[in-house]
Amino acid sequence: MYRMFRWSVALAAVLLPSIGSAQIEFPKTGYYAALGDSVAAGEGAMPVTRGYAYQLYDHGVFGTKQQMHFANLAVRGGRSWDLRDHQVPQLLCSVSRPTVVTITAGANDVFSSTPPLIALARTAPLALSTVSAPTRSASTWPKLVFT
Question: What average pLDDT values come out for the chain (147 residues) when binned by 10 residues?
Fold first, then answer.
């Protein structure tokens, strides 16, 4: 009898956690991506989820959390060429195209000791045209939000 009780307890210990951790999957209809510098990355916000990009996602500005994928590709100290050379290619390598993209960039270019404003004027439009180009398979353009 004692042996049967031990087996029952062992079986319950194995099965109960799997029952309690079941998750509900909601179909995702949108994809929000944040690009840019430390402002978009949430620098100074503790925790980082208090940054504006996550707050937009969390408060459902572009769609409910159950409906939206979210990616914050922003980098602390990011410059305009980081946006063009690193963040945009990362975004384009994702499985799905974003439906909304927020871009906060340029402050580190302007406030650096040697501001290459002409380079900034050339770099930002290249990044924007790459992000906003329609895909080959679909003619949908993401909604760009400049901050």
Answer: 66 59 75 88 76 90 90 86 86 84 81 62 65 54 58
Domains along the chain?
26-146 (3.40.50.1110)
E strand intervals along 8-84: 30-36, 68-72
pTM for the model: 0.65
Give the residue from 105, 104, 101 showing the smallest Cα distance to 69.
101
pLDDT the model gives residue 136: 47
- The candidate with the shortest Cα–Cα distance to 102, out of 124, 139, 74, 77, is 74
Q: Which residue has the tokens 């993209």?
A: 101
Percent of the chain with pLDDT over 70: 59
Provide the 3-class DSSP secondary structure of residue 15. Answer: helix
CA dist., res. 50 & res. 52, Å (int): 6
Nearest residue to 26 (alpha-carbon basis) of 57, 62, 66, 63: 66
